[in-house]
């Protein structure tokens, strides 16, 4: 399961499956628009497919059908709304079994994979694309989340953010709550350069904008989580772009990342305008 979805679930104390359901609704139109844009661009492009990259994966990987078992299990258990911790544990156990008994990995190699993730030969293109993962890669993120989460208690007991929160409440009356979360997340992502920290900061500053935590969780998913990858100096965008050797200009084609916030801002403004019209009509009557 997505670590960002789990983070927001923990911050807002909401149900992850309900959050995913709401995310599917809010992203349906942007996803369809993104697919259409890619089809149009691909049909008008004469650039050939990267055969070297296709051959690279074909040469280095020969997956048995059993390798699909961990992914199938996590999907099935998610559909059955099994607790994420148990679903992930079952998927990990299945993956370990496949590695040991189907792919012939030794217990030592499997343990190293758990700790350090996938490791291809250094200096190869495959290493640039796939190396990483494992428990070690999550240590820094875990430390950032722990330190950042400690701010919540400090802010709540010292009222350090009270002035900021009042300003955001005033802003929400003009920009709508979603618009305020969007602006806050852009600033948080630009300053923190880190998706997790930006999400935590945005959540702490905007937690009073929505009466329901589920709406705040959805707003965070549609803003801070996606916008972090659009910041040119942020980790979420620069690391994958550098890994594939692409220019930063390629972020222009990450349509989904900015269509989701844009679409939800438009719908929020539209619904706010309708509510204002109904209120004015009721007052007139």
From TrEMBL:
Domain Na+/H+ antiporter NhaC-like C-terminal stretches: 1-245
The entry's keywords: Antiport, Cell membrane, Membrane, Transmembrane, Transmembrane helix, Transport
GO molecular function, one term: antiporter activity
InterPro entries xref list: Na/H_Antiport_NhaC-like_C, NhaC_Na-H+_Antiporter
Topology term for the membrane: Multi-pass membrane protein
Residue ranges crossing the lipid bilayer per the database entry: 22-41, 61-80, 92-118, 138-164, 223-245, 251-270
Cellular localisation: Cell membrane
GO cellular component terms given for this protein: plasma membrane
Pfam families per UniProt: Na_H_antiporter
Lineage: superkingdom: Bacteria
Entry similarity comment: Belongs to the NhaC Na(+)/H(+) (TC 2.A.35) antiporter family.
Protein name: Na+/H+ antiporter NhaC-like C-terminal domain-containing protein
Taxonomic lineage of the native organism: Bacteria, Bacillati, Bacillota, Clostridia, Lachnospirales
């Amino acid at each position: 399961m997505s670590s960002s979805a789990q983070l927001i679930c923990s911050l807002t104390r909401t149900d992850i499956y309900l959050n995913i359901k709401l995310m599917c609704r809010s992203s349906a139109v942007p996803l369809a628009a993104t697919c259409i844009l890619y089809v149009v661009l691909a049909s008008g492009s004469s650039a050939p497919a990267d055969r070297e990259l296709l051959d690279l994966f074909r040469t280095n990987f020969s997956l048995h059908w059993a390798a699909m078992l961990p992914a199938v299990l996590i999907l099935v258990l998610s559909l059955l709304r099994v607790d994420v911790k148990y679903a992930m544990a079952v998927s990990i156990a299945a993956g370990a079994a496949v590695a040991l008994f189907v792919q012939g990995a030794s217990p030592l190699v499997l343990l190293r994979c758990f700790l350090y993730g996938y490791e291809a030969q250094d200096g190869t293109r495959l290493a640039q694309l796939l190396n990483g993962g494992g428990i070690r890669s999550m240590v820094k993120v875990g430390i950032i989340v722990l330190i950042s989460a400690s701010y919540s208690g400090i802010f709540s007991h010292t009222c350090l953010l009270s002035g900021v929160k009042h300003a955001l409440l005033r802003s929400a009356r003009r920009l709508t709550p979603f618009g305020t979360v969007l602006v806050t997340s852009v600033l948080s992502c630009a300053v923190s350069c880190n998706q997790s920290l930006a999400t935590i900061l945005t959540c702490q500053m905007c937690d009073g904008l929505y009466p329901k935590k589920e709406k705040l969780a959805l707003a965070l998913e549609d803003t801070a989580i996606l916008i972090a990858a659009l910041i040119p100096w942020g980790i979420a965008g620069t690391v994958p772009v550098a890994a594939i050797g692409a220019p930063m200009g390629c972020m222009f084609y990450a349509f989904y990342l900015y269509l989701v916030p844009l679409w939800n801002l438009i719908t929020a403004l539209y619904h706010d305008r309708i509510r204002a019209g109904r209120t004015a009509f009721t007052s007139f009557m």
